[in-house]
Amino acid sequence: MESSIKLNGIRLYGHHGVTEIEQKVGSWYEIDITIEADISPAALEHDDIQGTIDYSAVLTVVKDEFATPSRLLEHLANRVAHAILSSFDRALAVSICVHKLAPPMPGNVRSAAVSLTFTRS
Fold this sequence. Notes:
31% helix; 4 strands; GTP Cyclohydrolase I, domain 2; alpha+beta; 4 helices
């Protein structure tokens, strides 16, 4: 059986970016995460959270990593994904997409995004 846990549309305000103004003023971000997970019969058959990954705990990890500024979306996504893998033994792989909403660039751009996938080694 293949199984995954998804958190979609996590909206956070942060001070990430290359330019000084991005770092000072900040911006809204949206994060989508898919975790390939080893979900045990304890969760499937016995309704026991110990057999899965508590997605509220995942959100806490995301917020903690997000609080540290990064210049690049790639760096931010890398840190968040690896923090999830190191925090949850049941996480086999993590796919993350970080969207910077209304990025400061000439033109009407809804978001700029970076997607990364990491598998536990």
